[in-house]
Amino acid sequence: MVANEGAWHTCALQAERIIRDCADSLQHGRADVRDTLIQQVAGLGVQRATQGIDAVHSIRAGLLLFDIVFDALGKAMVNSPSAFDGFQAGVRTLQRGIGRRLEAGALGHDTYLLNTVREVNAATQRQLAREIHDHLGNHVSLALRRIELHELTWESRPDEVAARIGSVKDTLTESLGIIRDLVTQLRRADREGTLESAFTAFLESMEITPSKVRIQVNGSEEWAPQDVLDEVFLVVRECLRNSLAHAEAEHVLAAIDIAPYKLQALIEDDGRGFDVSAVAVAGKANGIASATERVELLGGTILFTSVPDAVGTRVTITIPLMDLPGDSVERAT
């Protein structure tokens, strides 16, 4: 948090308030924490979350502050052994001041994450609604129109009837395929078994052959939490669907590498490229926005690389799984 000037300023302010409470407790011999100041920390939790600062850094900063102030209180006790009551009050105030602030910050952080998840789910629902309207609705309307034309020409032009019936059948068959695709999306990764088996089941449900989509999962899934694996499955599945449905790719590769400290995923296709920035500006990037928010909620990054009128799109996902060895309290501050 030292690198973030705003976060560092708020840390210093909270530390100053805690130390001031400890000093008052030493003087009066009773624990005293000003709760009115703590209520402001919930807003800081939201602010830190929006800045991408994980709550663990606040915990480490609190632990570091506790060590520093506790040592100072201990030295004060050595210099004045008769002030034991003040020492006890100071330690209690220190613990309560830090603990209550961490609790308030965590509540604010959780509130932000919950609201973000709701926004992601709402965006997904809007995307599905648009898919139903734009694709399924158009296909069904077209099929109904052809049936109406068939009724008008049944007697006057019987030779055209067979061709139109076949066309209606093809349209309805395609509509059923769209319905099956949407239903598959709505079954939010009731992911059973490994990632690889989950992707295999998804491809089989979509009747996609292994020669068209190749899945590679390297490393042990035990290194990654289940919620991370679930979200990665959802994001990669959406990328696969986009490659096949929108880019009209002939071949797609999805490679997922799981290491003890990091998960990386790469999705590449040979379909039509697109202008990522233009799509976002045009408001047609719900899929990109949803994937980005899901990955960022896990503390990761996602990069879409594509060029209009060119072949292929690449999606790169990186998610940290835990802190690197040697990460310490001092490093966090």
How would you describe this protein?
This protein is of the alpha+beta class. The chain folds into two domains: 5-115; 191-333, Heat Shock Protein 90 (2-Layer Sandwich), CATH 3.30.565. 64% of the residues lie in helices and 12% in strands. The chain contains eleven helices and five strands. A five-stranded mixed β-sheet has the order 1-2-3-5-4, with helices on one face. Strand 4 (301-306) and strand 5 form a beta hairpin. Helix 5 (84-153) runs antiparallel to helix 10. The longest helix has 70 residues, at 84-153. It starts with a helix and ends with a helix.
Indicate how many domains the architecture comprises: 2
What's the number of helices?
11
Q: How big a fraction of the residues is strand?
A: 5-15%
Corresponding CATH superfamily of the largest domain:
Histidine kinase-like ATPase, C-terminal domain
Total beta strand runs: 5
Q: Which CATH C-level class of the largest domain is it? A: Alpha Beta
Query: Alpha-carbon distance between the termini?
Result: 6 Å
Q: Identify the CATH architecture of the largest domain.
A: 2-Layer Sandwich
Q: How would you sum up the major sheet?
A: 5 strands, mixed
Structural category is alpha+beta
* Helix share, percent: 55-70%
Order of helices and strands: HHHHHHHEHEEHHEEH
Q: Order of strands across the widest beta sheet? A: 1-2-3-5-4
CATH domain fold name of the largest domain: Heat Shock Protein 90
Mean pLDDT: 76
Please, what is the oligomeric state?
single chain
- Unreliably modeled segments: 324-333
